[in-house]
Structures
1.
Amino acid sequence: MKLDKKDYGIIIIGIILGMIFTEKVSQIVWILGIIYFLHKYLWHGEKYEHLSDDNIEFIDKEKYYQSLKKIMIFIDIYLIIKIIIILLTDIYVYIGIEIALLIPIITIYGDSLSRKYIKSINGEEIVRNRKFIKNKVLTAFILVIFVGYTYTYLSNIKINSNEIKSNNYSYSLTYDDNKNKVVEVKSKDDFHQRAEFTKKNISYMGKYIKYSKKYVYMNIVKEYCLVATIFMFILAVAQVNFKDRKKSSTSVNVFLILALVFLSIWSINTNNFQYNLTNYFHEYVETY
């Protein structure tokens, strides 16, 4: 891969800024960097060819690069939305996963364009017809187990106005023996808070309940996504032809994308959720 010399300086500056500033700022810096490099090297066909040593014989070079710009627009929109989410919320994931998620998306789209507009690469003809699913029986078996797990997991979740509960996380709004309202938050790692409504803290309990629900909701979702990620990676591996990767089924990238989507949700930084909940509890809610 051949980059302009000044771009190595941009990469170094980006790394330094990422180390100096907060996680939120560093995420935005890296996303802006991705947009810059994608536009510089992929928006124009000449730059794209400059990056590769492959000898590409096109069927229709102009349409290939026009179509490549369409995925660029999609990625721009996706990354801009990510920046907005980072600015307005505390929900963001590690940028490495975002990059990993974009790669199979571009690969799927690129393979589709290659079959339409490229005749050969380095003298080797492009494979026009590929199986969508490989190892159908094994794939169906894994999918059945995954659906069964999903049904069981969702069935064990209880949600209503006064309670959110899974096997490992719970929020509840109940009454104690003295008819006072009590909020309890529990998690599998022995995290436990119990807040009783009093005259001193009643004005703060609404926000505390909001923090509590957000904390429990996000952890329940993350717990499911971790298992879903494992299933999707197994399904992706089941589609690979290890003797000839070029003959792997096209669904390998579909399952890989799903795996990375679940992984990105699981990797959402919830430290702020627990920090806000605990800090607010000790500052405004806890009674002695």
2.
Amino acid sequence: MRSSPVLPLLALVVGLIHAGDAPVVETPAKTGPAKPAVVKKLTAMELVAEDERWVFRPTVGRSDIFVDLEQVLNAQFQLKLAQQQSAVRRDGPTGKPGEQPRDGDIDQLLTWSKAEDARVRVLIGARKYEEAMRAADATLKQLDPHLSRPDVAPLIVSIRTYRAQAEEAKIRDDAQIAFEALKIRVLGILWSQDGSRMAIIDGESRAVIVNDRVKDCAVINIDQDRVDFRFVFGRRRFEFPVYVADRNQSKP
């Protein structure tokens, strides 16, 4: 039995009618996958230049922990010296530094002595040891007759202590200057077969060991990078190190 061609035709017409009633959905145009942005890779020199342009800007009121500690200590020391000098000018009597009171008023003597005590400390901090010793001696000469007073005795002890410190510091500085004038130069350190160290000293014909003498200075220790010498100055013994000299240096 042959199928009628009308049925497929009717089915096609019904499908087109339903397709016309359905909403039309627009499909977006295919644009392809998004390409990532190309980032230029900096060279080593460009990275260094970029790092050098960076400036650290701390928050307002925030303490900066990257400040050089040596600069902080130096600033604190200078501030302390300025405060002591200000106290000397404020509390001390008018006139030249070290000028003694003319009358016998003990209160004026105490005020002047306290100012001189502070001035001695300032001079020691400035490494002016001879001037500090002269100021201390002049002050002690005025205070010694009043040693029995309870308000004078502590001041005398303080000035004598700082005077002794100034004297010790001056002696050591003089000894170090005299030792450096010998111009001892260590060229290198050697190890002997028995394990002991030997030092090569400029101008010596052989390597020296502990207890040898170089320019009338006894060798008391030989380390990896230095040699310690015992130096006699003013009937006192001092120990000074001399480090291995750099080849580019002309003096130790």
